[in-house]
Amino acid sequence: MDVGPAVSGYDVLGRVDVDAPGAVLRARRVADGREVALRPVPERDLAGLRAMVPGLVALEDPHVVAVQELLEGPDGAFLALDWVDGATLVEVRASGARLLVGQRLGVIRGMLTGLASAHAQGVVHGRISLSNILLDTDGVARLIDFGLGDPVAAYLPPEPGADDRGTAAADVYAVAAVLVHLLTDRTVGEQSRELLAIDASLRSVLVTALSPAPADRYADASALLEALGKAAKRAYGKVWWTEAGIGSLVGSAVAELVPLAPAPAPVVPVADEASGGKQRKPRKPRTEREPRAPRPRRSFRVPRGIIAAAIGLITVGAVVLGAVAVQILGEDQPPDPVSLRTDLFCDRFTGAAEAAIGPDARTGFTSSGSSGATLGPKARASVSCFWGVESPAQVVTVTVGSASERDATSPERLAAVIDGASQDYVAAQKSTWKPSYATDCEELDEGEYDTAFSCFAPSIQVEDKPLRAGTGVVQFGIAVRDQALVCGGSLTVDAASDRESFDDLVAEVGRLCAEVLPAVRRGG
């Protein structure tokens, strides 16, 4: 077993990612048993970091990994930080994980929030890149390595000296360059035409942030965050970002901890001007960041995040999907043995969805309960995926979440809603309602589900009027404790022959739901 470095006041437990140069160490502080990360500090960065440490220690933001102290000794210099289970954005992407647009924006929003706190206290990062954004196992983006490491040319602004300690304007440029990379999979230097693929509202913000002249950029991270939020709302709606499901992608990217044998030689904590030349005492633990007992697994992940709800409303001839924000609900204890997973992605079921409505299906992801929303202490959040094609209009949805918030429509209620709208239409055309216009619903083989039904409303042709499209709806639902799975689909109906197409959709949605249920069920 390799021997770890000697760090006064800390027991070194192991090394993360043994093959990486300057690998982070995991250690336990002797004074209080708190586990921390020890980041090796290269000699070239040490002088600059000494000046930054007082500001970093004072910086408290959930989107910045908290710095405890700087230590120097015979075995080198180390920056002591809060230990966070997670992986960098580079590592997550390298694992093959695919982030949805809302998740990518959620990552940028998180790191911008932390950077805004830093800028407000006069602290600049100077090294922003994909490798300096840590995603924890709760899906929260955190900034790391202020002033550490080599600058990445792809994210450096063009002004002279940008590769030195940096400025707030340089940080703004770097954040915008990272966002372009996330949205286009190309760096700013590699593409210009591809920037046109970004929504025009966002593009205008990025053009300003990427201006060659520092004075023409946003003044700091707070100004960029405000502009980005307004533009993203115009582009994607009120709920433009999410952290939902990111944590589930991080787990496979978390590096193993390689144990190290203890070393006897101590090092002495560095003195700084703020302490009058005296040794600085270790920072007291922050109660809001107290570590919780990890569940036994290789990546030391702590179960915590649950994701917020999405509701799809099916109306005659169209489907309206409610897309509202994300709530991350903290849980100090693991979930009950019987529950439904809310950390699976649409990609997991895309094959089955395409079998139902065709290979040209467009995938979407929505969730509800924004971070500012008020949910009860026992609220159960949820997440929804949907796939759709335009012609003929078909949508397949899968929602996992709160049983109290699910669309628990019965066939009788759905038929009444559809027929009510149809009767209003017929009356508006000064025509007479016919029994043949009525919605036909039937119960399906429930199997493991609590409810399973389909409803078919035919198209309506009023004399001398355009054909009014009908609709076909199929839904499967099951409740597990206080959660529910709702799986279903819909199809617009333009002719009597569409009944056969709808029967095919019913069968395929049944197969999709049969695949989803065992995948999202855990425990029991």
| Percent in strands | 15-25%
Give the radius of gyration.
27 Å
Tell me the strand order in the biggest sheet: 9-1-2-3-5-4-10
Cα separation of the termini: 41 Å
Estimate percent helicity. Answer: 25-40%
**Largest sheet composition:** 7 strands, antiparallel
Give a count of the beta strands, DSSP E runs of length 2 or more.
Answer: 21
Low-confidence parts lasting 5 or more residues at pLDDT below 50? 271-338, 368-380, 404-408
| Overall pLDDT confidence | 76
What are the key terms here?
7-stranded antiparallel beta sheet, 524 residues, 2 domains, alpha+beta, Transferase(Phosphotransferase), domain 1, single chain, elongated, 22% strand, 10 helices
